[in-house]
Design a protein that fits this description.
Strand content: 15-25%
CATH superfamily of the largest domain: Hypothetical protein af1432
Largest sheet: 7 strands, mixed
CATH class of the largest domain: Mainly Alpha
Number of domains: 3
Number of helices: 23
CATH topology of the largest domain: Hypothetical protein af1432
Helix content: 40-55%
Number of strands: 15
Radius of gyration: 25 Å
Length: 488
């Protein structure tokens, strides 16, 4: 499916320069391309007051490549912005002017308030009803802003990014005291105490990866990874005592990033110590996503990111979400005990994506559906909800999961949730057999459920649709819900 209005952001940070090309400005934009280069613009900035010379040249080469790539990919809307390093450096404006002269593109230097605001909006755009404090840890600074649903307070910024801390001192003890003096000034303690701290930025995400590895966590998705503060503190203390040689042995994290991890751990330690949050929620959404969200009108902002994302995924397959809405309504009689707003929302998302593996090899459709959801960039759902939808779609294609998938499900889902997902999957199988996923057919085949009986009544004008396949799928659904199958 062609993307008629792709847009691109080039994020010039203190440690890295990143290009992300999205499929458009919408409630749930999908990344088409994502590349990062570690440049270290903020290296030694506190001693020299200037951007690092080698970092400047590397950043310039990267930006040239990114601008050219955006043109190749027919991007008409290209936005470049810079954060703490360029903002604070004496020669930051000269760097911006040089890029403008050589490439003919404009760069906006975000203020501290802008950076905090967009970080907060990144959480608002991707987390359902957020409440707490957002902390965006870049290479050069930490931005903090209080968030509650769709409201943000004025944010603050402190010069305690990991790259900056590394420059200040190679001794952790000196950096530790430097961090503490800033976090003690933190004006948002009341918003954080007993609430959520939303950890944004690459260094925080690497902490999440390490914690996941220590816990043998079954999912690899960072976004909305939620950890109790007591639990993450153990990982923080281990990291703060590890030598550089030991850090380099941790898989999945680059050597350049690894040197910064103890400093990121220190920052989080002091936030927990002083702010006393109950939960740390790691996020893949931050300033870039928040900036895009800020460009939307109020009506689009109110749309559900999960349902929009599900519809976008299916649109890429040239599949309309219309059938998914009909399917969710059709199976509603099965769920008198699972009928909360959240239950309905997750069922609808699963139904919209019911044909997600339609084009895969039949032997792998169930596994592919499961993996697509677990590995997708969908937002607006936590890990338990993500796994619930993945399981529902697995059962859409296969009634009996393999032992590894069953084990993963059992770690995060209750037996009731597994039963709920299995019912959704079995209902999807029956609906597909009756309608061929064609919108407008299911209204002619009604489901009803009483205390002991699940009944299916089929209108006369489609009565020939009933056959062995429908009978088999209907019996499967009745068995899953523990009822007698009866065709009327």
């Amino acid at each position: 499916m062609p993307h008629s209005n792709p847009l691109a952001l080039i994020d010039i940070g203190s440690n890295s320069v990143r290009l992300v090309i999205y499929d458009g400005l919408k409630r749930a934009p999908m990344p088409l391309f994502n590349e990062k280069v570690l440049c270290g613009l903020a290296k030694n900035i506190d001693s020299t007051g200037k951007l690092h010379k080698k970092g400047v040249e590397k950043a310039l080469r990267s930006i040239k490549r990114f601008v050219s790539l955006a043109k190749i990919m027919d991007v008409k809307n290209l936005k470049l912005f810079a954060t703490a390093a360029v903002r604070d450096a004496k020669d930051g404006k000269d760097f911006v002017q040089r890029i403008n002269d050589e490439l003919g593109v404009q760069i906006e230097i975000f203020s501290e308030e802008d950076e905090a605001k967009y970080a907060g909006m990144g959480i608002m755009s991707s987390v359902t009803k957020p409440k707490g404090v957002v902390g965006d840890l870049g290479g050069g600074s930490l931005e903090l802003v209080s968030v509650k649903s769709n409201d943000l307070e004025k944010g603050v910024s402190y010069p305690i990014g990991p790259l900056r801390l590394l420059n200040i001192s190679n001794k952790h003890s000196k950096a530790d005291g430097y961090i503490e003096q800033y976090i003690k000034q933190f004006p948002l303690k009341e918003s954080l105490a007993g609430s959520n701290f939303y950890a944004v930025g690459g260094s925080f995400r690497n902490l999440a990866k390490v914690h996941m590895g220590r816990k043998n966590y079954p999912l690899k998705v960072i976004h909305n990874y939620k950890v109790e503060t007591e639990d993450i503190m153990t990982t923080i203390m281990i990291l703060s005592r590890m030598s550089e040689e030991s850090l380099l042995k941790i898989p999945g994290i680059s050597k350049k990033r690894m040197k910064l991890m103890p400093y990121a751990a220190m920052v989080l330690k002091h936030i927990i110590k002083i702010g006393k949050p109950k939960t740390i929620v790691f996020s893949a959404s931050g300033v870039r996503e928040g900036f895009l969200y800020s460009q939307l009108n109020d009506e689009i902002k109110l749309q559900d990111p999960l349902l929009c994302g599900a519809s976008e995924m299916m649109a890429r397959m040239l599949r309309s979400s219309e059938y998914g809405y009909e399917l969710a309504q059709w199976m509603q009689p099965l769920f008198s005990k699972n009928n909360s707003v959240d239950d309905k929302r997750l069922r609808l998302a699963a139904c919209i994506m019911s044909d997600i593996s339609a084009y895969e090899n039949t032997e792998y459709r169930a596994e592919m559906a499961y993996r697509k959801i677990l590995d997708s960039s969908l937002t607006g759902l936590n890990h338990t909800e993500r796994l619930f939808i993945a399981k529902s779609l697995y059962f859409r294609y296969d009634s009996y999961p393999d032992i590894n998938i069953l084990s993963t499900m059992g770690q995060l889902l209750s037996s009731k949730k597994i039963q709920h997902a299995q019912t959704i999957g079995a209902a999807m199988q029956l609906a597909r057999t009756i309608s061929g996923s064609k919108y407008g057919v299911l209204e002619k085949a009604k489901l009803r459920m009483s205390k002991n009986v699940l009944s299916l009544s089929i209108n006369k004008d489609i009565e020939n649709i009933y056959g062995e396949s429908v009978q088999k799928k209907f019996k499967l659904l009745a068995d899953v819900v523990g009822k007698e199958a009866r065709v009327l």
